[in-house]
Amino acid sequence: MSANVGTLARLRARIKDGFGVKTTATAGNEFTATKMEVFINMLIFGLLTMVTLGIGYCFFFVRFLKWIYSNTKINGKRITFSGTGLQYFLKNLKWVLLSILTIGIYGILCVPRDFCKFFVENTHFEGETGTSEFKGGRIEFLLIMMASGFAFIFGPPMLLSYVVGNSVIDGKKLSCHLNGFTLWAQNVYWSVMGIITFGFYFFLGAPFWRSAIEFVVENISVEN
Fold it and tell me: What own/partner pairs with CB < 8 Å and gap ≥ 24 does 158-165 have?
């Protein structure tokens, strides 16, 4: 049994390392929250959203995001989120109203890009006060989304690389080191974990989501 556990641990370490794809640029990256902490915060977020019949979703989502950020380091620097639940609520209200008025056109052309723009512009490295911005264009973003939808396993890395690669945090440009093979290897690990836990790995949520967040965090770096 111990041999099997050791083999699984070594396989996970190799997958997390991207089978040699990752670089030293991501060495200072980490997500420090435990599975139990993720589970508790996800549970609180879900319960509060249900109790308020979805009305408090924006406020509780921002709270949850700030908690995730507080447990995240990129190149050894902790990140913070300066936005508020009210700002996100007003953004959502604007997006919904404009999407209705344009018969969904605004929602397709603008909302995905504006969503990323809002969150990137409110993301900072702890203690720094530079300008954060998202440089991706609306049409360009739409085309990348459409292309990633047809790219199977290469789609998510393509979209994530575009979003991260067009994000500037406090004047520092980010890069994403994910590729299709790395994601394929990680999906193999997640699938194996789902099988050997009879689905509880996904059903409970926290083990999978903690691993997913950690996986993304460990593949982002700041360009020199």
Answer: 160/216, 162/136, 163/116, 163/134, 163/136, 164/220
pLDDT in tens, the chain (224 residues): 445 555 555 555 555 554 444 455 566 789 999 988 999 999 999 999 999 999 999 999 999 999 999 999 998 889 999 999 999 999 999 999 999 999 999 999 999 999 999 999 999 999 888 899 999 999 999 999 888 888 777 788 889 889 999 999 999 999 988 877 888 888 888 888 888 888 888 876 788 888 889 888 988 988 86
First to last CA, the chain: 45
For 123, other C-beta atoms within 10 Å of its C-beta total 22
